[in-house]
Design brief:
Structural class: alpha/beta
Distance between the termini: 25 Å
Number of domains: 1
Radius of gyration: 14 Å
Helix content: 40-55%
Shape: globular
Order of helices and strands: HHEEHHEEHE
Strand order of the largest sheet: 1-2-3-4-5
Oligomer: single chain
C-alpha cells in the first residue's frame, strides 16, 4: 500500500527519471544477474552513498533488498533499480526506497506494481519490511 501511494504522488508531480538520477546523486553501479522463470535479466542496481551506508548497518533491510532484486524480473521488464535512503528527522523514521525504472507507460508500470504488491510484497513477512518501500518510475 505504501508503494502505491508513493507512486501516485511521484507521477502526479511529473517526476522523470533523468532529473531524479541527477538530483539524487546515484553513483556506483552494480550489475546483478537475476533469474526469472522466462528469462535471465541483467539488472543494474544503483545505490546512493547514503543507501550503501544504511545497508551496511541494517542487515534485515539488506536481506530484503536482495530478495526484492530476485523478485523484480518476475513482475517487471526493467533493467535498472535505483536505491535511495530517506531520513525523516522530524518523524524519527527512515526509509529505504527501491525505485524500479520502467520503460512502459506509467499506467502499465502501476499495474505491474500492484501485481507485485498483491502476489508477493503484501504476503512477505520480514523484520525491517516497514523500513522499505518499492516504487516505480517511468523513463522519459
Amino acid at each position: 500500500m505504501k508503494a502505491r501511494n508513493l507512486a501516485r504522488k511521484r507521477f502526479q508531480s511529473g517526476a522523470i527519471i533523468k532529473n531524479y538520477v541527477r538530483s539524487s546523486g546515484f553513483e556506483n553501479r552494480i550489475s546483478i544477474l537475476s533469474q526469472s522463470r522466462k528469462r535471465i535479466l541483467k539488472l543494474k542496481v544503483e545505490k546512493t552513498d547514503s543507501a550503501k551506508k544504511y545497508l551496511s548497518q541494517d542487515n534485515d533491510v539488506a536481506k530484503i533488498l536482495n530478495l526484492v532484486i530476485k523478485k523484480i524480473p518476475d513482475y517487471f521488464d526493467s533493467e535498472t533499480l535505483l536505491v535511495d535512503f530517506i531520513e525523516h528527522p522530524t518523524e524519527c523514521s527512515s526509509l529505504l526506497r527501491i525505485n524500479v525504472v520502467c520503460n512502459e507507460p506509467i499506467e502499465e508500470s502501476l499495474k505491474k506494481l500492484w501485481l507485485f504488491d498483491d502476489k508477493w510484497w503484501l504476503e512477505f513477512k520480514s523484520p525491517g519490511k516497514d523500513k522499505v518501500s518499492v516504487d516505480v518510475i517511468a523513463r522519459d
